Amino acid sequence: MNSPADQQRPAYAKAGSAYYPVLVAVFTALVIISNVTATKGVAFGPIITDGGFIVFPLTYVIGDVLSEVYGFKAARRAILVGFAMNALAALAFWVTIYLPAADFYVNQPHFENVVHAYTQLIVAGLAGFLVGQTINAWLVVKIKERTKEKHLWARLIGSTFGGQLGDTLVFCAIAANAIGITSFRDFVVYAALGWLYKTAIEVVMLPVTYRVIAVIKRREPTYQPAL
User: Fold this and answer.
1) Overall domain count for the chain
2) Could you tell me the sign of the dihedral formed by the alpha carbons of 171, 174, 176, 179, in that order?
3) What share of the chain is helix, strand, coil (3-state, %, to 5)?
4) Can you give the residue range of the structural domain that contains 151?
5) How confident is the model at residue 197 (pLDDT cuts 50, 70, 90)?
6) Is the pLDDT of residue 7 over 50?
7) How many CA atoms, within 13 angstroms, populate the side-chain half-sphere of residue 96?
8) For residue 183, which phi and psi values (nearest 5 degrees)?
9) Considering only 49-53, 56-60, 145-149, 155-159, which range has the smallest mean pLDDT?
10) Would the pLDDT of 6 be above 50?
11) Is residue 103 part of a domain?
12) Which UniProt keywords apply (predicted)?
């Protein structure tokens, strides 16, 4: 018989379902794509960012879904898979640099420049990713312990606020030099706008996140609503 403490805890679906590996695969792909595109610094007038802004916020949308439906341990497992695959991507790029180039291949210097930038960015991305996603997942779960199935918006926005702040500060501190940011002013603009942009994107994406969470909760046979 469950104790009163166990009965008060939020219920989560089992990670062995058909939906969990699909979410982890999408999550991992988005992280790798965002780290590759982040090797290019981008400027919209005074606004300085990197190419990772295109898809990286979506990793937090998937992270929210994983944390809300499957719990912290399952979300952490997805984070570790994403971390490992990014590390593997960096290793594969470095090995490719030292493979003998074909006579017709003329892009070796360009490839090396991208990989060198990617290596610094992968360190920054992995550090920020681990910090930000862990904070994000932890906050979703902790807020859910108090709110149960109510106030989903508070879990999603609160976790995004904290997770993106931790991620952005760690990432930008390591990555700024790799994309050519050298002044303190540019760094502040880069970090602040990055955090605001990624947080704003997740707020805009709330209806989509709500819908995805609702669909998976409804179709996930092992999920029991928290009461």
Assistant:
1) 1
2) negative
3) 75, 5, 20
4) 4-39+51-98+109-219
5) confident
6) no
7) 17
8) -90, 150
9) 49-53
10) no
11) no
12) Cell membrane, Membrane, Transmembrane, Transmembrane helix, Transport
